[in-house]
Design a protein that fits this description.
α3 (about 110-120) packs across α4. The protein folds into two domains: about 5-235, 3-Layer(aba) Sandwich (Rossmann fold); about 240-355, Nucleic acid-binding proteins (OB fold (Dihydrolipoamide Acetyltransferase, E2P), Beta Barrel). It has helices at about 45-50, 95-105, 110-120, 135-150, 165-185, 195-200, 220-225, 230-235; strands spanning about 5-15, 15-30, 30-35, 60-65, 65, 80, 155-160, 185-190, 205-210, 210-215, 240-250, 255, 260, 275-280, 285-290, 295-305, 310-320, 325-330, 340-345, 350-355. It is elongated and about 75 Å long. The protein is an alpha+beta fold and about 350 residues long. Keywords: ATP-binding, Nucleotide-binding, Transport. GO terms for molecular function: ABC-type transporter activity; ATP binding; ATP hydrolysis activity.
């Protein structure tokens, strides 16, 4: 496999504060990697290190087989798109797209050719003679992407490019970025706190917390088999349901209060008996029914039925006051106060060790 980007033992500290800790990432040629995590986790900081906007404390950064650890941003062969559009207000769209190329003393014919290509790909041809003030937010972001595109680089870095847009525009531009990657097949590293963007765009997601990568895997792997409690809780909306209990009977069952759940068929395989463990269940991996099944169901009471359009979220209260959510078909309406039983799909569940918080 040819690597487009390699991050080797990267560490970044500001004084005594360690921001990025011993990071190692290999990004394949043409891969779309998303750095995902809450505010302050270090994702934008890592992107700025790749771009050469921050000097690292230790480690190495390689791009296209070249050690660029101490190279200037202009020498790294990258194009960067920021959260703020950073367009020159006094210049037209054409002027914004050509500015960097003119400074590099590129021939006018080549500049015109690159602008025409970017305008076609991003569908901004009719906007070339407008100034940024006459553009919508989505159009400005397209121009910002175009400015990176005309540089004809191998690696694109996106720093939360859609966060300033409304929900509809975010959805539309997300599709445009997906199309752009499919058409160009360039390597892209994309920073976001939005898990929908991550799950829909990425070939692989790096979930970050406290300057450490918690899990680096394909979207479905992260969603279905989160490596630890943090990843499980961060990915998914609404969040995974967590039941605090114990694995009993030599690991053959999970005990939650007075409820026993059979663990036969758990995808993780054999489970050790643990006095404390956490069972994680996605809302779509539970089924509401009116009768109990020994070892397969959890008794609960309906609190709220929340229609979401394509489906509904039913919020319930289980033993010990535990709040749980279940996805149901939108045509099935549930009344508050109804006593029900939640059937568990144990093959799709996750079990975590309470002390280490790692997936069992």
């Amino acid at each position: 496999m040819t690597h487009s980007i390699q991050v080797k033992d990267l560490t970044l500290s500001f004084g005594s504060v360690s921001v990025l800790k011993n990071m190692n990432i290999d990004v394949a040629e043409g891969e779309f990697i998303v750095l995902l995590g809450p505010s302050g986790c270090g994702k934008s900081t890592l992107l700025n290190c790749l771009a050469g906007l921050l000097d690292i404390t230790d480690g190495e950064i390689w791009i296209k087989g070249k050690n660029v650890t101490w190279a200037e941003p202009s020498e790294r062969g990258i194009g960067m798109v920021f959260q703020s559009y950073a367009l020159y207000p006094q210049m037209t769209v054409r002027g914004n797209l050509s500015f960097g190329l003119k400074n590099a003393r590129m021939p006018k014919e080549e500049i015109d050719k690159r602008i025409a290509r970017a305008a076609e790909i991003l569908q901004i041809g009719p906007l070339l003679d407008r100034k940024p003030a006459a553009l919508s937010g989505g159009q400005r972001q397209r121009v910002a992407i175009g400015r990176a595109l005309v540089r004809d680089v191998d690696v694109f870095l996106f720093d939360e490019p859609l966060s300033n847009l409304d929900a509809k525009l975010r959805s539309e531009l997300r599709v445009e970025i997906k199309r752009l990657h499919s058409r160009l097949n360039n390597t892209m590293v994309y920073v976001t706190h939005d898990q929908i963007e991550a799950l829909t765009l990425a070939d692989r997601i790096a979930v970050m917390r406290g300057g450490i990568i918690q899990q680096l895997a394909a979207p479905q792997e992260i969603y279905n088999r989160p490596s630890n409690l943090f990843v499980a809780g961060f990915i998914g909306s609404p969040s995974m349901n967590f039941l605090h209990g114990a694995t009993v009977e030599g690991g053959r069952a999970f005990q939650f209060g007075a409820t026993r759940i059979d663990l036969a068929g758990y995808e993780g395989g054999a489970i050790l008996e643990r006095p404390k463990a956490i069972l994680g269940l996605r809302p779509e991996h539970l089924v509401i029914q009116d009768h109990a099944e020994l070892g397969l169901t959890i008794p609960a009471v309906v609190e709220i039925d929340e229609p979401m359009g394509a489906d509904s979220l039913v919020w319930l209260e289980a033993e010990g006051g535990l709040k749980m959510s279940v996805r149901v078909p939108v045509e099935r309406r549930m009344s508050a106060g109804t006593q029900v039983h939640l059937k568990v799909d144990i093959a799709k569940a996750s079990i975590f060790d309470t002390v280490s918080e790692q997936r069992v």
